Amino acid sequence: MMIRLISFFLLLANICFGSIADSTKAHFTLGIRGDYGFVIAHRPALRPLQEEHVKGFEISIARISHGKNSWEHDFLLPEKGVTLAIFNLGNPERLGYGFAIYPYLDFPLSKKETNKLIFRYGIGLGWVEKIFDSEKNYKNAAIGSHLNGVIHFDLHYETELTKKSRLEIAAAITHYSNGAYELPNLGINIPTFNLAYTRFIGEKRLISHQQYTESLPNSSWNVYIGGGVKKIYPPQGKQYTAGVLSVLRSMPIKTKASWGLGADIFYDNSLSARLKNSEATLKGTSDDLRLGFYGAYEIHAGKTGLLFNMGYYAFTRWKGDGNIYHRLGIRQYFNKVFLCMNLKTHYARADFIEFGIGYKL
Questions:
Q1: Phi, psi at residue 110, to the nearest 5°?
Q2: Which candidate in 16, 33, 149, 212 could, as Cys together with 196 as Cys, close a disulfide (CB 3.0–4.6 Å)?
Q3: What secondary structure letter does DSSP report for 361?
């Protein structure tokens, strides 16, 4: 569900168009935000974690784009920033506090200078104070590691208070997950209502209106190899390795997005262990292999790519995860070489985090 919502709002940002003002309001913004929400009990085992409402505080600093690069005009001059967030998770005994730090992009969904909707997408790292412990904290079925990945997105409305400040009202969700590096890993999902005050800092900058003559990129082949570690139940068990070799044929949609079709070969040595636990007959190397085909959509924000995949296992001996898988990822391009980090899931259940390197042919 989260992947679908993120994809929808990024697609909406991708098709927005309109005229751009002559100058920015400032060079930077500095904002403070208050959060009020709750932990979602998306599994019955998480209901004991819902004692009180979640309360949070965030501080963000961002740079206002001024159109130096063509992609900034493509997305109506998004703001690029970083947020530090602190949450009282509403259960001091079992969860304690949650911390997060993540870079983000604010995508305007309107050409207006003021009174407009913004979609924020951020991905980074988080820390949860109190985690699962089989003796002392066995009712925390949400998270098994202090260090986690964090995904944040929100839809907020901005209105100008003064020429140097603005007010923001938002509906947001913040997700903590370790990608099954440790168990349990049902994840912590926190929907919040947010109120923020933002101050403009620094001098105005003239917005570049130079005419860009970028031609439509060529279709390309993307090849990458990635891997990570994961656990399966029981939580005290060993860690397993998982890896992927992926090939994607990518085709551009104008200059700011692309779609494609690809194939994955996965190696995951936890699969044979799960087959053995289910008393299935082991057949050798094929027990740990999966072959998948997928469709891909990628937003290109300069040298950064935001990736969304949906795939289908054409071959897998282990059927316990179903045949559908998803990826939510980020890529950083260095000419033809790119680094990537992807969260691979089966619907709302994390499989593992892929850290990889690839080449664009």
A1: -155, 155
A2: 33
A3: -
